[in-house]
Amino acid sequence: MDVIRKIAHNEMVEITTPVLITWYVGKARLCGYFRALNHYKKSDRYPIPRIPHALDKLETAKYITKMDCMKGFHHNGVKQNSMKLLRIFCHMAIYEYTKISFGIKNAPANFQRIMDTIFQGEILEAWMVLYIDDIILYSETWGDHLQYIEIVLSKCTPINLKISLKKCNVGQEELLALVHEVSGLSLAIDQNKVAEVLQKPVPKNIKEIKSLPGFASYCRKHIKQFSHITSSLYRLCSKDVVFEITKERIDVYERIKHELTNAPFLVLPDF
């Protein structure tokens, strides 16, 4: 998968952006600093499924499989005249992306559209959940489950959609998916994510304030009166509000941590 190409020294370079190295699951991930480009891009409002609604579909599942598209956004090409906008530089050379890069504004919505188009029939048959680059299959019988896996792989092969074997979990009664420990009976918050939250210090700026409630919002169904608890922190993020960390807000921050570590299991509805 050719994701970037090196720019020759004699090529005209009008736009470049510095390289950023982000860490994801203990590994370095390359992306460009595309904030200026994102500012001018029109927003793609294609709907991305809400995680609680997606997981509610697993209420009858006895077997669950999770697949992860390898470097999902890189499966999507870039028009020739747009590649010059995706140039990055480092001490070695200048490069340009030939595929959609991490950090591009509409990349998640665009990839969700692609996945929905590929698997639209399977979604309607109600044994698949798609969340950007995550594929979740569920069934009540093992025979059906094997058939569903075969269908998905048969659709991935012709279009060269690669699946990460390291991130696959096949035929499990319960597994980690979409920030939750999921099974056909219940939902619980992923304790690995909670452990990361517990290591966070008291916030010193707006960005750090947003990070904890932002993660917790994925788990708001597990936290009673979530909106009420987090309201004072969200007010700090409003325009024209002076940033100030008070004892009351520190207490709220610590309470969110406490609620996450003591969050109950939720039983999936049986409609």
Please supply descriptive tags for the structure shown above.
Reverse transcriptase domain-containing protein; Retrovirus_Pol_polyprotein; 271 residues; alpha+beta; Alpha-Beta Plaits; Rev_trsase/Diguanyl_cyclase; flat; DNA/RNA_pol_sf; 21% strand; 4-stranded antiparallel beta sheet; 5-stranded mixed beta sheet
Write structural notes for this entry.
The structure is a single chain. It is flat and about 60 Å long. It contains 9 helices and 13 strands. It has 271 residues and is of the alpha+beta class. It has helices at residues 35-40, 51-56, 107-118, 120-124, 142-156, 191-198, 206-217, 226-235, 247-261, and strands at 4-6, 17-24, 27-32, 63-68, 87-89, 94-97, 128-131, 134-139, 169-172, 174-177, 180-183, 186-189, 266-267. α7 runs antiparallel to α8 (226-235). The strands form 3 sheets. A 5-stranded mixed β-sheet has the order 1-6-5-2-3, with no helix packed on it. The protein has a 4-stranded antiparallel β-sheet with strand order 7-8-4-9. It has 2 domains: 4-186, Reverse transcriptase/Diguanylate cyclase domain (Alpha-Beta Plaits, 2-Layer Sandwich); 190-264, 2-Layer Sandwich (Alpha-Beta Plaits), CATH 3.30.70. 20% of the residues are buried.
Question: What is the total number of structural domains?
Answer: 2
CATH architecture of the largest domain: 2-Layer Sandwich
If helices are DSSP runs of H or I spanning 4 or more residues, what is the number of helices?
9
CATH class of the largest domain: Alpha Beta
List low-pLDDT spans. none
Pfam families: RVT_1
Organism: Austropuccinia psidii MF-1
Protein name: Reverse transcriptase domain-containing protein
Domain Reverse transcriptase: 33-174
